[in-house]
Design goal:
Number of helices: 10
Distance between the termini: 39 Å
Strand order of the largest sheet: 2-3-7-8-11-14-15-16
Bound molecules: adenosine monophosphate, magnesium ion
Shape: globular
Oligomer: single chain
Number of strands: 17
Low-confidence stretches: 1-24, 131-144
Radius of gyration: 20 Å
Largest sheet: 8 strands, antiparallel
Helix content: 25-40%
Length: about 350
């Protein structure tokens, strides 16, 4: 019998509480779907049910632009052209997103790096379903899985494998032109650390065009709040306690449009011999980042920034992470190994600690 960790719900990172009172002409529409390899939870206030259109928008974003697995997506095309000498032209919005992400790589001194893809593949992180420990999953039909189920340490790459994979990483080696990109042979990109935030940005555009009054959309660990609730009270976004994911640490109280992204070591991980190997890698070592941090939450207007910065700040740790977040005008909340909470000044205004 499969022994799944009973944390699937926790994989959302947040619990969204939406208090609904007198709705006037607005109607409240809700939907929960699996899109972009994650759970997408929507609550929309408006005259029309647009949840299906938002789901379709995200599915399109995944298959046409972001997924490295889908042949013909922009990212798959970029990866396929590595070493060809030919610049791959990139759709305009994604091109801007790539520029933003390369900027974060530079400002974070490489703590954030979309060329970490070969190391992510080596660790097989995408097979670590959110909240499920692969070491405890029933063996699959593949040889590797059978080996792993008998010998969980087979889940951990050897130092030699990691050193070899690291050779094919390094954002500085990307050739970026005004509207395109070229990777050296053997390199590939993975937008897993920013894709859900990019999705939030695309949803904001859609909501504005479609005159939606208010919305809360959680795309995995990135949450978008938008507009107003019918009762005009602030949106409430709960923060999971990374030391006990069944508990909430507190709540963010937000008015208007904001993006909230959390990166935590409890989202995807595998435990072998009592050691937790999580999904946020230090590009300098190829191993899960050990920065003394258990989770980082970033709040800012931009989804791509909140998502990428939460990953970058997790790798950098509290001191350098705080500086990076502040340099982007973003607010940050760090939880360290001992459960201590560190907040930027602006975060102190919006975070209400649970008593
Ligand atoms: P997030 O949950 O947003 O922090 O993103 C983590 C995901 O981004 C991982 O599952 C990897 O696919 C990828 N990733 C891991 N470490 C890094 C890193 N240092 N820089 C960029 N992407 C990363
Ligand atoms: Mg991220």
């Amino acid at each position: 019998m499969k022994r799944f960790y009973r944390k699937i719900c926790v994989s959302l990172l947040v619990v969204i509480s939406v208090a609904v009172t007198g709705c006037g002409k607005q109607t409240r529409y809700t939907a929960v779907d699996t899109v972009m390899g994650t759970i997408v939870t929507q609550t929309i206030y408006g005259a029309e049910d647009v949840t299906g259109r938002i789901k379709a928008l995200l599915a399109d974003l995944e298959t046409k632009e972001l997924s490295w697995r889908v042949v013909g997506s922009a990212v798959a095309n970029i990866n396929a052209a590595a070493g060809s000498g030919e610049i791959t032209a990139v759709p305009e919005k994604l091109n801007q997103d790539l520029n933003t992400l390369l900027g974060i790589s530079e400002k974070s001194g490489g703590a954030f790096d979309i060329t970490i893809a070969p190391v992510v593949r080596l660790w097989n992180i995408d097979s670590w379903a959110a909240g499920v420990n692969p070491a405890e999953m029933e063996s699959e039909t593949t040889e590797k899985s059978a080996e792993e189920s008998q010998n969980p340490s087979a889940l951990i790459p050897t130092p030699d494998e990691i050193s070899k994979a690291l050779i094919s990483t390094g954002y500085e080696q990307i050739e970026k032109t005004e509207d395109g990109i070229l990777l050296p042979a053997g390199m590939s990109i993975d937008l897993g650390a920013a894709g859900k935030g990019i999705a939030c940005d695309r949803i904001v555009e859609f909501l504005a065009k479609n005159k939606v009054d208010g919305a809360v959309v959680a795309v995995g660990g990135s949450v978008l709040v938008y507009g107003e609730k019918p009762d005009h009270t602030p949106w409430q976004v709960a923060i999971v306690d990374p030391l006990d994911t069944a508990k909430k640490l507190g709540v963010l109280s937000l008015a208007g449009q904001w993006c909230v992204s959390t990166s935590g070591d409890y989202e995807r991980f595998v435990e072998v011999d009592g050691v937790r190997y999580h999904h946020i890698l230090n590009p300098a070592t190829g191993y899960p980042a050990e920065s003394g941090v258990r989770s980082v939450t970033i709040v800012c207007k931009s989804g791509i920034l909140s998502d990428a910065l939460s990953t970058a700040c997790f790798v950098l740790g509290i001191e350098d992470g705080m500086k990076l977040a502040e340099s982007y005008g973003a607010e940050a909340l760090f939880v360290d190994d001992a459960g201590n909470v560190f907040l930027t000044d602006g975060m102190k205004q919006i975070f209400v600690r649970k008593k």
